[in-house]
Structures are given as structure tokens and as C-alpha cells.
Amino acid sequence: MRDYGAIEAMKVKTLAEFGQINGLLNNAAGNFISPTERLSHRAIDTIVDIVLKGTSYTTLALGKHWI
After folding, report:
1. Which helix (H) or strand (E) holds 1?
2. What is the pTM of this model?
3. Which end of the chain, C or N, has fewer beta carbons within 10 A?
């Protein structure tokens, strides 16, 4: 969930199906089984996008909805 558009679509679909969203549990993770010296900068970018941006974007989208 590192694409804000996809998160908005998930929110809309969830609201259409269930009528409301009562809570949010952010539990995303991006992991690579690899020695650190073999990781590329793109692998690190992917992990940061999933863990940090995914959490922030989901909180932002649902926070705006609840406000």
C-alpha cells in the first residue's frame, strides 16, 4: 500500500461494502532476505515506501475521512 490512489480506492470500496470504517491497524512490512551488503538502493526504497509511506498515506486518507 505505497500508492495513495490505491489506498483511496480501498477506502471507497470498503465504505461502499461496509458503510463505515471504525478503526485502522497499520501493519505493513517490506522485507528482503538478503545480507545487507547485497541490498540495492532500490530495495531500501521499496522497504521505506511500504513501511513509512504506506503507513502515513493510509493514516492520512482515513484521518481525512474521519474528520
Report:
1. none
2. 0.79
3. C
